[in-house]
Predict the 3D structure of the following.
Amino acid sequence: WNIFNFRKGLIIKLIKKGYKIYILSSEDSYKKELIKLGCIIYPININNKKINPLFDIILLFRIYNYYKKIKPNIVLHFNIKPVIYGSFVSGLLNIHHINMITGLGTAFISKNIIKKIVKFLYFISMQKTNMVFFQNKDDRNLFVKNNLIKKKFTSLIPGSGINLKYYPLKTYPKNNHFIFLLISRILWDKGIKEFVMAAKLLHSKYSNLTFQLLGPLEKEISSEISLKQIKLWEKDKIISYLGFVKDVRPYIKKSHCVVLPSYREGTPKSLLEGAAMGRPIIATNTTGCKEVIDHGLNGYLCKNKNYISLANSMEKFIKLSLKKKIDMGKKGRIKIMNEFDEKKVINLYLETIKKITT
């Protein structure tokens, strides 16, 4: 699902250019979709949710065996474990590789021994990396400052980009029952607690609001939220849980504002999707989110881990005229077109691959 939804455009372009694409990934229902595109799939259980020394050693050897078997000209790594273990193996086998840091995850947000271990693993794995793409300046500066990578081997990239044809500008809803939509994995560090508390506060003042939560439940993650907890929020009529859906566009189309009070991001796809479709967006003034919002123009930034600040931003949005809301959505669309078009991401990959392999 992750590869199909975030890398489909890049895969199609590479295949058109004559590249043969092998994918190492955990399997799900999207395997068939990737095979239809022309990819060759090698199933591998990555388990990004836990650090288990024995499991990770086995994973490392499996990656090594696959790379020896495939003999790739170049490898593209995404997400934490593939970047760390894939880069380490690529270095051992002298294989060209490009990493994308899609976000630093819970390990980097926390202040414990796990953070030190992850930093050490990044350091030893990236000694022979050809290029590391970062989705925001803060993440790049953090890696360079901690001597995990030299700046000359880094570049900024506008997230995974957004397919502007797939996410077209949609007419803004003109009804006065406002829908705030949060699209994310169901984790505490996505700011869901703040979203719920802000919803409680605003429900006490307004009767024409709906707060929707859309995304997959995550199991075996320390910051997961249980279905039982979500059911309690629904029972109290604070939020409406929409579950996981394959296509978020119909829900964005019906919404008035897309919200993401996350504690830290790479470049959040949900904000790009919302803005591309002409919806004002509200998010925390933190790494990853602040790059997508021009405060007061295409949305609002609020304080991190502060539900009152979030509620104030939502209320400010509620009080805007319909014309101002529509204008805000259109400015968001223009920003996405100028800065986050998927074509920019694909071209940067193609240029880097050509430079590295020739």
